[in-house]
Design goal:
globular; Aminopeptidase; 2 domains; 6 helices; alpha+beta
């Protein structure tokens, strides 16, 4: 499997086909926003390929020594075949000099997709992503922070409070995001 930055044509195809199926509307940025972010040189869209077939895709913010995973998904019929784990290991190896930060929805008593959330948590844990005790609220969605490698809580809080405003904009951060160490 090979990790490559997506061309604009490939990215538009992913946005039109896979992205809309893989993420609920509340979690999706518009295609226009993603394309605009790509022009900032802080946002990158990658794909993993096998025999020129797109297997997974990954959108991320990258600056200095930090990567913030924005979207990561396995394409269509490739789900449940181990490709996600292989891609995640490739990502960790490719960006081994970075602190990789991601977010996972937290299970709740009234969430209809708890089993899917728990499956995602187990996936990242199996691949040595550290489930921190730091939580964020992003546009009203409670998320638990995961990292690779494991990092001290205070350093993680400092990184989040520094990079979220840089990646999402100070106004969005102040209005729509909250970083905390409490689950609720």
């Amino acid at each position: 499997m090979e990790l490559k930055e997506l061309t604009i044509k490939q990215l538009k195809h992913v946005l039109k086909t896979h992205y809309k199926q893989d993420f609920p509307p509340i979690e999706r940025k518009s295609a226009r926003t993603i394309l605009k972010l790509c022009s900032t040189k802080k946002y990158f869209c990658y794909g993993t390929f096998e025999n020129n077939e797109l297997i997974t895709y990954l959108f991320l913010f990258k600056e200095n020594d930090v990567i913030l995973l924005d979207y990561f998904a396995v394409c269509g019929n490739n789900k449940d075949k181990g490709f996600g784990g292989t891609a995640l290991e490739l990502i960790k190896e490719t960006f081994k000099d970075y602190l990789i930060i991601g977010e996972i929805e937290t299970p709740s008593t009234n969430a209809p997709n708890n089993s899917q959330i728990l499956r995602r948590i187990n996936f990242y844990a199996r691949h040595n992503m550290y489930l921190s005790d730091v939580y964020v609220s992003l546009w009203g969605v409670k998320m638990q922070i995961i990292t690779y490698p494991k990092v001290d809580r205070q350093i993680l809080l400092e990184k989040l409070n520094y990079y979220y405003p840089r990646f999402y904009g100070l106004r969005n951060f102040a209005k729509n995001m909250k970083v905390d160490i409490k689950k609720d």
